[in-house]
Amino acid sequence: MNYLKFWGVRGSYPAPFGSHMRIGGNTVCVELRVDDHILILDGGTGIIPLGNSLIKQDKIKDVTILLTHYHWDHISGLPFFVPVFIPGWKLNIYGPGNSQEEIKKRISGQMIDPYFPIEVETWLADINYLIAHKAEFEFGPFKVETFNVHHPGITLGYRITVHDKTIVYVSDHELGFLDQAIDARQNEFNASESEIMNTIKAEERQIALEHVKNADLLIHDAQYTPEDYKIKKGWGHSCYVDTVHFAMEANVKNLYLFHLDPNYDDDKAEEIHLDTINILRQHNSPIVSNMAREGLIVDIDSL
Question: Are 7 and 23 in contact (CB under 8 A)?
């Protein structure tokens, strides 16, 4: 079976609490496995059990890791990803950066004294750092397109096409960033300036939608409730209500709520999921809403 598997779904920091285990406590990591090719999205703590699983098989020893950015919740599992310590494995690591040296520096910065006992120089696998210098590239059967999203620092989203299916991965993205930034200063603009700002907002929204439009599966940041988003505007994450409306505008088929706030236990996560279903029903939307859960497997060919 060609599949997508969630190995980590939390944002910000791991939440290994009994009250969180139905959803899962590891930070973000998603595996795409198609035709014996493996594409890994982000390297949070979820990549640790993924690595332990990979070394139990001998068929595949060449994987590509796509990093959206270098915040710790997205790279903190890499020092414990067992395949990097095994000769004969090949890992391509792709992420934001102007040079291979810059990407290596971003990743290795968490593996230096006094923060970690061993450095990346101890890795024994064949490591290739790939520069995000072009918007499109291919790995095995995967066609990958990159795009920028609203999050502190340079952060990428990925649109992946494989077997005529489209999967869009947007782990950290504040959909309301531009709106709230402009709205907060509306009283500073005259009528002409307000018109220009509203045009900018519309154009930015359209650009964001184009990257996600008609996706068979959208994995998107849904970190906050509306109440929490009010006090965390500008932090780089979306309110789940904004995420659902964005998915409807983009005409996606399946939505997976992702990068959930680690302060939300399983019951809170279920409430969020039920509310997204109600919103979709109110709009007569055919979108299937799902809460991303650690260990969940999605058959790609059935999308």
Answer: no
Strands 3-8 and 297-299: antiparallel
Length of the chain: 303
CB 41 within 8 A of CB 57: no
Whole-angstrom distance, CA of residue 199 vs CA of residue 275 = 31
Tell me the one-letter amino acid at 22: R
Pair of tokens at residue 249: 């505008």
Q: How far apart are CA 149 and CA 158, in angstroms?
A: 10
* Domains, in order of start, for the chain: 3-302 (3.60.15.10)
Tell me which residue has tokens 């915040």: 71
Please name every residue paired with 3 in a beta bridge, in sequence order, or none if there are none: 33, 299
CA–centroid distance for 144 within its chain: 14
Cis before 114 (ω within 30): yes
**H or E element that contains 262:** none
Cα separations (Å) of 221 from 85, 185, 260, 292?
31, 26, 7, 10
One digit per residue, the tens of pLDDT, for the chain of length 303 reads 999 999 999 999 999 999 999 999 999 999 999 999 999 999 999 999 999 999 999 999 999 999 999 999 999 999 999 999 999 999 999 999 888 899 999 999 999 999 999 999 999 999 999 876 667 888 999 999 999 998 988 899 999 999 999 999 999 999 976 556 545 555 655 666 555 556 555 667 788 899 999 999 999 999 999 999 999 988 999 999 999 999 999 999 999 999 999 999 999 999 999 999 999 999 999 999 999 999 999 999 999
**Partners of 162 in the β-ladder:** 165
Q: Are 53 and 64 in contact (CB under 8 A)?
A: no
Rounded Cα gap, residues 193 and 195, in angstroms: 5
Residue 121, classed as helix, strand or coil, is helix
Three-state DSSP state, 249: helix
